[in-house]
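queue> pop job 88
queue> type: inverse folding (structure -> sequence)
queue> payload:
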């Protein structure tokens, strides 16, 4: 079965605008950058966290700490995804204890990735607050988790897939809806 692009829902400019809007919302909700840090969930959450940090830096003229979180061992479907799942390094160059953390991911679907990320962060310390920022919310939650910051809400069917492509990972910026097509 192959996946085919059905529709583009964001281009590079749309992604940039969404990131700048989310940056403003983060600053407003947190009343600035005091005690604030961003943590991107591997793989595409990290470049998005870096972009958010850059946007916040331009607005506030202040840099933010950014870390990368691997949640592989925290997944509740670990035994079903691969015989030997690839675990990568978590790199958070700051103490999360008493920090206001914004977890960043590309898409929220069932909420299970965000739940796993919460568990992983809590194993590193006890933040004051944890917020969740996503580029796309596609619905279909299976756990009671809701993002605090959303670039775009995209109602989808369960058959559809949201594919976020980032220059840092995929060579181009866009968000598309894909559908499986029988070969």
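queue> result:
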């Amino acid at each position: 079965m192959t996946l085919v692009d059905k529709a583009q829902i964001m281009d590079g400019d749309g992604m940039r605008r969404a990131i700048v809007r989310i940056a403003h919302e983060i600053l407003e909700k947190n009343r600035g950058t005091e005690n604030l840090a961003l943590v991107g969930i591997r793989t595409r959450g990290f470049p998005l966290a870096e972009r958010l940090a850059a946007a916040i830096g331009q607005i506030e003229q202040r840099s933010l700490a950014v870390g990368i979180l691997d949640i592989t061992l925290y997944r509740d479907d670990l035994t079903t995804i691969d015989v030997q799942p690839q675990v990568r390094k978590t790199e958070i160059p700051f103490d999360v204890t008493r920090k206001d953390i914004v977890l960043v991911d590309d898409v929220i679907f069932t909420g299970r990735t965000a739940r796993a990320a919460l568990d992983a962060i809590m194993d590193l310390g006890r933040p004051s607050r944890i917020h969740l920022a996503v580029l796309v919310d596609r619905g279909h939650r299976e756990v009671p988790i809701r993002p605090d910051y959303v670039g775009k809400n995209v109602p989808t069917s369960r058959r559809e897939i949201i594919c976020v492509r980032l220059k840092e990972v995929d060579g181009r910026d866009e968000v598309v809806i894909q559908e499986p097509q029988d070969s």
